[in-house]
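Researcher: Next sequence.
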Amino acid sequence: MHTNETDPSTSRPGTRERLIRATLDVIYQDGYDQATTRRIAERAGVNLQLIQYHFKGKEGLIAAAQEQARLRLMTLLEPAVLAAPDLKAAIRAGIALTWAQARSHPEFMQPDLLLQIRRASGQAPGHDLPARETQTDLARLLDQVRSRSGERLAVPIDPFILLMMSGTAGLLMEYRISGDAATIGAAFELLAERLEGLVLGGLEDGV
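Model: Next structure:
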């Protein structure tokens, strides 16, 4: 469906948000490679020119969708993680909320968005990647909890976060493919247990 928004300068309030939401929906349903600007504009019900007007093209629109997904995840996780009494509880709370969000709003929990899409095809892995802001955010939250609780990790924080994110991303991808909530839910529980096993006792325990 198209609207009469043929003049970008007169786009209605909320157009930008509709385009971002449409981008998330189209990428989830059709995949990144099939998420054309025309398909996104049709899904949002706006003129194609508005993507250029609001985002300077597809790359800017995808970046805005990534940021929306990241902020949605952090808004969900931050209060629960910081309210946890210790690091193990924080890890379990974060994984449980991630799994709950994947079931209720899967369009926000796409690994290629949260882990960042490599925008320049044909380049070596790692080239042209934006900052791994999700990884930085999670490290900041867990650092605050472990600083308060006096706990330590058996491995450095960066590999720990990478392990947690890659494990979560793999399960989210499998859930998208299989839709097997029972099996994936059990796997999320197992992931939480394995990560908790890397938490050492507090400083008062002499660790």
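Model: DSSP finds nine helices and two strands in the chain. Strands lie at 152-153, 199-200.
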